[in-house]
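Key result, reporting period 2: structure in, sequence out.
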């Protein structure tokens, strides 16, 4: 998010800079990667761990790990004003721990299971980063709208966008956990139509933003951030739709 002194002087970092994740968000993404990887490892019967052989136990752990991934992501997306800091990271980790008591007690065994054969998924990581960042920046845009905006109308539309982004993110995580090929094709296909719908709402939010200042042509911070969200959401839905159509045509 832009620093307060920069915002006060009307200066803002570039769109690209605003969409670079913080160190805390990078750590959070790594945590979710670990939860997702452990879930997948429990389905791999070629592994030696007894955790895999006891299917009832494996299913129980998977259910907890899935809940933990979802709770973690949901806590990120509900971050007030979109400011993801160290305190929020701790809250996310606590939310995940609360819903996986059995898996938490067996964390060393689960770690050993994962280490038997690592399954790096940079494509899934990058997609999740994009979805989570969109939610955070949408919250920042809503918080930064100037007083001249009809805040009730903007928040009503903005909340619909946030709900749809939350739904898309959790749907993406669920599809990624059960994707046979461990690529982003299946989870992207699962959410692309929802993103297209949300894309239209984001354009509507941008239209509510105040016009640039007549004296210097500068947009308010809220308008600038909402434009970033709308542009990034449109780019994402277009890219993922194109990939889905290319896969279907192949």
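The corresponding designed sequence is given below.
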């Amino acid at each position: 998010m832009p620093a307060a002194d920069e915002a006060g002087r009307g200066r803002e970092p570039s769109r690209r800079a605003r969409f670079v994740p913080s160190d805390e968000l990078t750590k959070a993404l790594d945590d979710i990667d670990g939860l997702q990887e452990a879930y997948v490892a429990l389905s791999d019967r070629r592994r030696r761990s007894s955790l895999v052989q006891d299917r009832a136990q494996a299913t129980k752990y998977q259910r907890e790990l899935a809940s933990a991934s979802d709770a973690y992501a949901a806590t990120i997306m509900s971050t007030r004003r979109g400011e993801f800091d160290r305190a929020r990271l701790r809250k996310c980790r606590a939310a995940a721990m609360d819903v996986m008591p059995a898996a938490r007690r067996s964390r060393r065994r689960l770690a050993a299971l994962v280490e038997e054969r690592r399954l790096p998924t940079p494509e899934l990581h990058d997609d999740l980063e994009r979805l989570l960042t969109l939610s955070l920046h949408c919250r920042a845009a809503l918080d930064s709208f100037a007083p001249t905006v009809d805040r009730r109308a903007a928040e009503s539309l903005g909340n619909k966008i946030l709900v749809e982004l939350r739904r898309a993110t959790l749907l993406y995580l669920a599809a990624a956990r059960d994707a046979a090929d461990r690529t982003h094709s299946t989870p992207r296909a699962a959410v692309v139509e929802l993103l297209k719908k949300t894309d239209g709402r984001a354009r509507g939010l941008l239209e509510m933003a105040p016009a640039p200042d007549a004296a210097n042509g500068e947009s308010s911070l809220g308008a600038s951030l909402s434009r970033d969200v709308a542009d990034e959401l449109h780019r994402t839905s277009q890219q993922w739709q194109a990939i889905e159509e290319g896969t279907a045509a192949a």
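The CA atoms of residues 212 and 219 lie 4 Å apart. The chain has two domains: 22-120, 121-250. This case is discussed further under Risks and Mitigation.
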